[in-house]
Design goal:
alpha/beta; D-Maltodextrin-Binding Protein, domain 2; 2 domains; five-stranded mixed sheet; globular
């Protein structure tokens, strides 16, 4: 009993000595408001796991994460100062930065090495190749990133844009009107539309995917973004967020189920089984690409980023010159050896 009392007394004394230091550490942490691009999905477990494992805390950051309502909305929220950091499509940032040079957002970590934009249809349409799209009706929201990129996609594939009839629809009705046969195809992210169709009861083998990257428009995708002035004012915060995101990605690849569990804890409606399939698609198609395996997570090949910028300028009819450093920077990336992802 005396030994147990001594041990407990020593433990309590140790805790008492440690508590002021931990309290000071918590008080000195930098608060960061982070918003993702859409409702919580499997790939967002990168940050769910980073939060659960205290990876942001290791970098002196106290991060809160919220769901988003589309990349365009996320960009506006970061640019306005409502959020410090966002996760959004770098393609959408091209147009925003040209039109809002005083509120530019900068990509500091390229998470999706490849865009997930695609044409999606069903087997019953008989369409298996983009060159078969002329004469058909395609549905998408007017502001859909994949739809906006269509002129550049059409040019790459020798398609006359005038031969496509577009039907403007609400985002939440995109897959429904395809199932109902009101359109022959839709545009969107494979990671969203494919699983929305599966959730609606469409067998996976009945879904036909025509990814832009497979048909000549190999652009970059979603990235971690911050305001341009944040880079100057809070470089340590940006560097810490990037590092924790990289470590969270490594942890998620090693233990996907642990990551998905953190998201289910945030949202009881989070379908773990479906999101496991979505996460696998995102990892295979957008994150663990040959380029990433060779150069490391977050690396950017200037020629591909130049194509990303020019394709978006052309697609949006923007007669402007957006310099690479007005859209992205790799200056916050740790050394390559620290960015190699597990297989």
């Amino acid at each position: 009993m005396k030994r147990r009392t001594v041990l407990l007394g020593g433990l309590n004394a140790g805790l008492a000595l440690a508590m002021p230091w931990r309290l000071a550490q918590a008080q000195s942490a930098t608060n960061v408001k982070f918003v993702v691009d859409f409702t919580y999905q499997g790939n967002h477990a990168i940050w769910g796991l980073a939060l659960a494992q205290g990876l942001f805390g290791h970098e002196g950051l106290s991060v809160t994460m919220d769901r988003g309502y589309g990349s365009g909305d996320t960009i506006v929220k970061v640019a306005s100062g409502a959020y410090d950091v966002g996760f959004a499509d770098v393609n959408a940032a091209v147009k925003f930065n040209v039109q809002n040079p005083d509120k530019r957002v900068i990509a500091v970590l390229q998470v999706f090495n490849r865009t997930l934009s695609a044409f999606i249809t069903l087997k019953k349409s008989g369409i298996t190749d983009p060159k078969q799209l002329p004469g058909h009706t395609v549905g998408a929201p007017e502001a859909d990133a994949s739809r906006l990129l269509f002129p550049a996609f059409a040019k790459k594939n020798g398609i006359d844009p005038a031969t496509i009839t577009w039907k403007s629809i609400a985002p939440n009705l995109r897959e429904t009107i395809l199932i109902q046969g009101q359109v022959d195809a839709i545009t969107g992210f494979t990671s969203s539309s494919l699983f929305n169709l599966i959730s609606a009861g469409v067998p996976r083998e009945d879904v036909v995917l025509m990814p832009y990257a497979k048909y000549g428009l190999d652009l970059y995708g979603n990235a971690v973004i911050v305001r341009e002035d944040t880079i100057k004012a809070k470089p340590d915060m940006v560097r810490g967020f990037v590092k924790a995101t990289i470590e969270g990605t490594k942890a998620l690849i090693k233990d996907p189920q642990a990551g998905l569990a953190t998201m289910h804890a945030r949202d009881p409606m989070f379908d773990v089984a479906l999101e496991a399939d979505r996460l696998k698609l995102v990892l295979d198609e957008a994150i663990l690409t040959p380029e990433v395996k060779k150069n490391g997570f977050g690396s950017v090949v200037p020629e591909r980023m130049d194509l990303t910028i020019k394709s978006n300028l052309e697609a949006n009819g923007l007669n402007a010159d957006l310099k690479p450093d007005e859209l992205y920077t790799t200056s916050f990336l740790p050394p390559q050896a620290e960015r190699m992802l597990p297989a």
